[in-house]
Design goal:
Layout: H1 11-14, H2 22-52, H3 126-130, E1 144-146, H4 155-159, H5 175-178, H6 203-211, E2 217-218, E3 226-228, H7 233-240, H8 246-261, H9 264-269, E4 274-281, E5 309-314, E6 322-324, H10 336-348, E7 353-359, H11 370-379, E8 383-387, H12 398-406, E9 408-413, H13 423-429, E10 433-436, E11 459-460, H14 463-467, H15 473-478, H16 482-499, H17 514-535, H18 547-550, H19 580-597
C-alpha cells in the first residue's frame, strides 16, 4: 500500500505514465505543495494582516515640547493613565448628542495628496489635522473640545451674580443666556424682537452659551481643532477689583491653570491649542507686580496662560496671547431674516446729521481730545451731541443712542478710558460710518472681524490733527463725496452680521456672527501652528512688542518693519507715551466711569 502525499494527489494519477521515475515525480509534487502553502500563509499574515489592523492613528509625543508632552495613545476612545487623577466628566449643560459625522480615522480619505508623511504621523495632533481630509464630514477641521471645568470657574459665579460688580446688580444682565432683559420697542428704534439691554461686559457668558450651540462639538479631544476653556475670567476679576488683596484676585486664575495642566489635553501642545474668553479689557489681567496697590490680576502673565489664546474686548498691542473681539451690542438675532431685515432698514434711513458723538469729557486726562470734539459738535450746525455726565442722561438709554446713530452719516469714536469703546459697534450696527482717531481703537484690535483696509468702512483722523492742529472735523468729512459715503455705508451695513452675537438659544442659518468668526480664527491660528511645527517653521525673529504689526500682515508675510502708526504704540522707558502702566490706569478709570454711569 502506498501512502497519500501531503497534497492528497490520488494514487490513480500517480500510476499513469509508467515510463517516468516515480520518486522524481513524488519529490516534485511535495515541493510544489510546500511552495503553495508558504505563499498562502505569507499572503494571509503579511499582506492581509497589515491592511486589517486598526488604522486609528496611535499618537506618540512628537517634537513639540518633549518636557511638556506626556506619552499618549489616542484612538476613537482615548485611554490615558492621567485620567486617573483628572477624571473625564460629562460637560455640564452641553448637548448630550454629538454630530454623527464619520470621524474615526479608519474611515478617512487617505488617498489625498496632502496625506502627512510617516514622520508627521508621530505628532500627537495629526489626527485632528487629518479630519479635514474627510470630505463627507462637514465638521472636518472644525471640531471643538470643551473642557468640563468645575462649576466654581463659571456657573457658580452666576449664582452669586450680585457680587459680580460693586455698583451694578448684574443678576438681570445674566438672564436670557447672558443677553439681559428684553428691550421694548416703544419709539420704533429697534426691531420688535431680538433686542436686549445687554451689559458691555457680558461676553463671558454669551460666548459660552453660544458654544453650547456650536455644531461641531466633540468629546474626543484627539480630533479637536481647538480646545475651549469655559472660564468666566471677566466675571471672576470683576468681583475682586476693589477692596481685595492680590491673593484673592489671583486665586481662581492660579487654580484654573493648575487644573488645566493636569489634563492630558494640555500636554499635547502645552496649552497652545486652548482658548478662553473674557468680556473685559486686557489690562484687568496684566498686573505687573505683586504690589497690593497695582491693578487687576496676573492671569495673562502666568507662564501657562501665555500659551493660551485669550479673547478680550480690548487686547494689548504689545502682547501675543490676547485677541480683540467685539463688544456685545443690544441686537441678538435669532435667525438670518432678523439680520437681513435690519440691514435693509438701515440702508433706507434718512440721515439728517453729518456727524454725531455720544460721550463725556475726560478733564482729568490731558491727552484726551474729547473736550475738543464736544466743542466742535456744539459749534456745528450739522453735528449732533449726546452728552453723558453724572445723573440722568440719555446716554444711558439704548433707544436714544441708537436713534442718534441711525440719524447720522458719521459717528465719532475717540478713545474712551482705554483704546476702545462699545459705542463703535453700536454705531456700525446703526449703519453709521465710524470715525476713529487712534488705530488702537479698532484697526489693530479687531483684525478678525474688520477689513484690514480700514478706509473701506471708516475715516481715520489722527489725534494730533485735533489736539495740535485743531482741524475741523466737519470740513474733513465734507471732503468725502456723497457717492463714496454711500459705498462706505454699504460696507458698514454688510459687516453687521459678523459684529453681533446671535441669540445663544438659537442658531443663524447661513450668516456668520461674531462668535463664528472668532472661533474660526482660533481654529485657523492653531491649525497654522500645527502645520508649522510639522514643517519645522519657527518664528525666531518674532518680537512680541510688535504684536500689533503682525496682525496687520497679509497672507504669507512674516516680517515686520517700521510702520506709520509706530508713534501711537511707542513704549519709552520714561513713560511719556502709551505704556502698560498708563493702560492699567485707564482700566481703573474705566471702572470709575462705570460707577458714574450707574449714578
Amino acid at each position: 500500500m502506498r501512502r497519500r502525499t501531503a497534497s492528497s494527489v490520488p494514487s490513480e494519477q500517480m500510476e499513469k505514465g509508467t515510463g517516468k521515475n516515480h520518486n522524481t515525480r513524488l519529490c516534485f509534487l511535495v515541493s510544489l505543495s510546500a511552495f503553495f502553502w508558504v505563499v498562502l500563509l505569507y499572503f494571509h499574515f503579511v499582506v492581509l494582516g497589515s491592511s486589517t489592523v486598526d488604522e486609528s492613528v496611535k499618537l506618540q509625543p512628537g517634537p513639540v515640547n518633549d518636557e511638556l508632552i506626556p506619552t499618549l495613545v489616542t484612538d476613537a476612545h482615548p485611554i490615558d493613565t492621567h485620567l486617573e487623577t483628572a477624571p473625564s466628566r460629562r460637560i455640564e449643560n452641553y448637548p448630550e448628542s454629538i454630530p454623527t459625522h464619520v470621524t474615526n480615522s479608519g474611515h478617512m480619505n487617505t488617498d489625498l495628496e496632502s496625506r502627512p508623511s510617516r514622520e508627521a504621523e508621530n505628532y500627537p495632533f495629526i489626527r485632528a489635522l487629518r479630519t479635514v481630509e474627510n470630505k463627507s464630514d462637514p465638521c472636518g477641521g472644525r471640531y471643538i473640545y470643551v473642557h468640563d471645568l468645575p462649576s466654581r470657574f463659571n456657573e457658580d459665579m452666576l449664582k452669586e451674580c450680585r457680587s459680580l460688580s460693586l455698583w451694578t446688580n448684574m443678576c438681570k444682565f445674566t438672564t436670557n443666556a447672558g443677553l439681559g432683559p428684553p428691550l421694548e420697542n416703544v419709539e420704533g428704534v429697534f426691531s420688535d424682537t431680538g433686542w436686549y439691554a445687554t451689559n458691555q461686559f457680558a461676553v463671558d457668558v454669551i460666548f459660552s452659551n453660544r458654544m453650547k450651540q456650536y455644531e461641531c462639538l466633540t468629546r474626543d479631544s484627539s480630533i479637536a481643532s481647538a480646545i475651549f476653556v469655559p472660564f468666566y475670567a471677566g466675571f471672576d476679576i470683576a468681583r475682586y477689583l476693589w477692596g481685595y488683596n492680590i491673593s484673592r484676585r489671583d486665586a481662581a486664575s492660579l487654580e484654573l491653570v493648575d487644573w488645566l495642566m493636569k489634563r492630558p489635553e494640555w500636554g499635547i501642545m502645552g496649552g497652545k491649542d486652548h482658548f478662553l474668553v473674557a468680556g473685559r479689557i486686557t489690562w484687568d489681567f496684566r498686573r505687573l507686580t505683586d504690589e497690593e496697590t497695582d491693578w487687576g490680576n496676573k492671569l495673562l502673565f502666568l507662564p501657562a496662560a501665555k500659551n493660551m489664546s485669550m479673547l478680550v474686548v480690548e487686547s494689548s498691542p504689545w502682547n501675543a496671547n490676547d485677541f480683540g473681539i467685539p463688544y456685545p451690542t443690544y441686537f441678538h438675532p435669532a435667525k438670518d431674516a432678523d439680520v437681513l431685515i435690519w440691514q435693509d432698514r438701515m440702508r433706507k434711513l434718512e440721515r439728517k446729521w453729518l456727524f454725531s458723538f455720544a460721550g463725556a469729557p475726560r478733564p482729568d486726562n490731558p491727552k484726551s481730545i474729547r473736550g475738543q470734539i464736544i466743542d466742535q459738535c456744539k459749534k456745528s450746525k450739522v453735528g449732533k451731541l449726546l452728552e453723558c455726565d453724572f445723573g440722568e442722561s440719555k446716554c444711558h438709554s439704548p433707544s436714544s443712542i441708537m436713534q442718534m446713530f441711525q440719524s447720522s452719516l458719521f459717528c465719532l469714536q475717540p478713545q474712551g478710558d482705554s483704546y476702545t469703546r462699545r459705542s463703535a459697534f453700536d454705531s456700525m450696527l446703526a449703519g453709521c460710518i465710524p470715525v476713529f482717531f487712534h488705530p488702537g481703537s479698532a484697526y489693530t484690535q479687531y483684525t478678525w472681524h474688520l477689513p484690514k483696509n480700514f478706509t473701506k468702512y471708516s475715516v481715520f483722523i489722527p489725534e494730533d490733527d485735533i489736539r495740535k492742529r485743531n482741524i475741523s472735523i466737519e470740513e474733513r468729512l465734507l471732503q468725502i463725496s456723497p457717492e463714496q459715503v454711500k459705498i462706505m455705508r454699504e460696507e458698514v451695513i454688510n459687516l453687521i452680521p459678523r459684529l453681533v452675537y446671535a441669540d445663544p438659544r438659537s442658531k443663524l442659518e447661513t450668516l456668520k456672527d461674531a462668535f463664528d468668526v472668532a472661533v474660526q480664527a482660533v481654529i485657523d491660528k492653531v491649525t497654522k501652528l500645527r502645520k508649522d511645527i510639522i514643517e519645522g517653521i519657527t518664528d525666531d525673529n518674532f518680537i512680541e512688542e510688535n504684536s500689533w504689526k503682525y496682525e496687520l500682515l497679509e497672507e504669507g508675510q512674516r516680517e515686520v518693519g517700521p510702520h506709520e502708526w509706530d508713534p501711537f504704540f511707542s513704549k519709552p522707558k520714561d513713560g511719556n507715551a502709551d505704556s502698560v502702566d498708563s493702560s492699567a490706569e485707564a482700566a481703573k478709570n474705566s471702572w470709575k466711569n462705570e460707577h458714574r454711569d450707574q449714578s
